[in-house]
Design brief:
Blueprint lengths: L2 H13 L6 H13 L1 H22 L19 E3 L3 E3 L6 H27 L12 E11 L12 E2 L4 E15 L2 E16 L2 E15 L6 E4 L2 E5 L3 E7 L3 E8 L1 E5 L14 E4 L3 E7 L2 E7 L22 H9 L4 E9 L2 E4 L7 E5 L1 E6 L2 E6 L6 E5 L10 E10 L5 E7 L10 E7 L15 E10 L6 E5 L9 E8 L2 E6 L2 E7 L11 E4 L15 E9 L5 H12 L9
Antiparallel strand pairs: 1-2, 3-4, 3-5, 5-6, 6-7, 7-10, 8-9, 9-12, 10-11, 11-14, 12-13, 14-15, 16-17, 16-31, 17-18, 18-21, 19-20, 20-31, 21-30, 22-27, 22-31, 23-24, 23-30, 24-25, 25-26, 27-28, 28-29
Helix pairs in contact: 1-2, 1-3, 2-3, 3-4, 5-6
Amino acid sequence: MSPERLEELLSAAIDGSLTDEAIDREELNAALLGDEVLRRSAAAWLSEESLLRQEAATLPVSNTHHKHAGAAAPTFRRERGIGASIVPPPSIAAAIGYVALACSLLLNVTLWLASREAGPAAPSNPTDPVARLTRVTGCIWEPSSNHAPERGDLLPTGERLSLKQGIAEIEIRNRDVQATVRLIGPCTARTHAGGIPDLQSGKMVVDARVFGRSLHLDTPAGHLKFDDNSSLGLVRSHDNYELHMLDGSVGWTPGLSTVAADPFLIEGQITEGDAIRCYLRGRNAVRIERIAPASNKFAEELSMTNDRLELGASYRRAVMESLPSNYWRFGRTKGARLQNEIADGIELTIGGDVKTVSYGANTALEFGMTRQAGYLKSEDRWPKAPLRDLTAEVWVKPSHYHNGTVVALTTERLSGHFPRHALALELGGSEAHWRSPTPLTSLRYLLRDEPSDLPDNEFGSSVSNGYDIRRWQHLVYVKRGDRLELYRDGVQVASNDAGQDKHVAASLQLVCGRLYPPGAPAERLYIGQMDELALYERALTAEEVKEHHDIGTQKPPPPGSI
């Protein structure tokens, strides 16, 4: 649309002649919504026009004008569209009406421009689909407008997404381009009409397929134009914004508000392996620099099949030589029951939705990858008598940082009470949970004698940065007399006093994948994969723990090797 045509339509809108012209009105709306240059021109024109009309309203009006009240109302005219040759309105009241119309249009355009910085406004039709939530993994949402997003939901423009925990995948379709956006909790973002959400805090990954067309994203670090088959990781905190190019490339134009830049940063392309950080002051960028790429910040982007665990006959032999009282390989099932390798051991029952994952000849179980949580529980009670020494050994691959219980031993639930814990091994999440004392991203192990539903007088501790995500880890909990020990990947990472003459109580229920047995609240659900659980009525030595880990991480020889 030409500037002259824009001025003509705006003048008609102010003078009222656009009211019944639907075609003109649609043309004006389309122009303002589709072209940022025209929007800014309209804002400037309306601002000047409203001032001119206010000035006209202050001009003296001849009393003789009332004699011609029946004459047609005069219009405002501009010479060459810039200067003003003003014909005053028939009355001050009419002038006020003109000013109100101009201000109304000015307000609408200005608010739209402001929304480009503050976040998009809600659409005129809130049901218009702009994005679809296609996949959720262990998601805990902070409800928005009393509604927590669910898989399959269409997300309207302006929707604020606050993900406390988990991974949410959003499919974006904008004309002929496609993008998949993964929000990695905790994070917040706001949706745009047909575009990539605006990241407000946390981490987000964008995979774009543009098929030779254009997909753009405005960030505090500048304007980005995605190339085909590109993958970009974004991290935002209160004082900086990072771009990590994971695959492909994007065109990059630094923002005008950036006042200082790394001299080695050149406007143009950001390619795979590049990363930049933009320092923020409020909402403005004040400095930008090149940084070392850190793809590990987006470890959640690794496939759950990325790290393989192939525990074979040699591992089974090593475990059996250490004399476990219970040992489950997770590949041998009888219906919903996991068969115990120990003839007189207890059986575990699968509850909820637990999937089987194969790594060659080895089989593991996968929890929490569907909307129905999964867990394991024992029907029988164990041990038969209190234990002074005990070992619990398991392999885990968490999907992401979350509050999740790997193994727990609890009492039966009494009326009006939660089950009481004697032992627990659990993960700390990426964000605090009001009912969990486990520090963020830590590994916590505890002993309570007597079993209790309160942390008072418990023994144990938490290990900071205690686990990795999407990688197999060998965890071993050991009670050795008056000491508690925790091992990760064959190395002791914690040792604590276990109290004098303290024991693991008898007749407990074994639970894996959740804090409490079924019938009690489903809290601290474990999300990820798990394999090879063994319980011992003795304390494994440090040498045994390391041997088990080393054998478990050995890769089997290729078929046909000699």
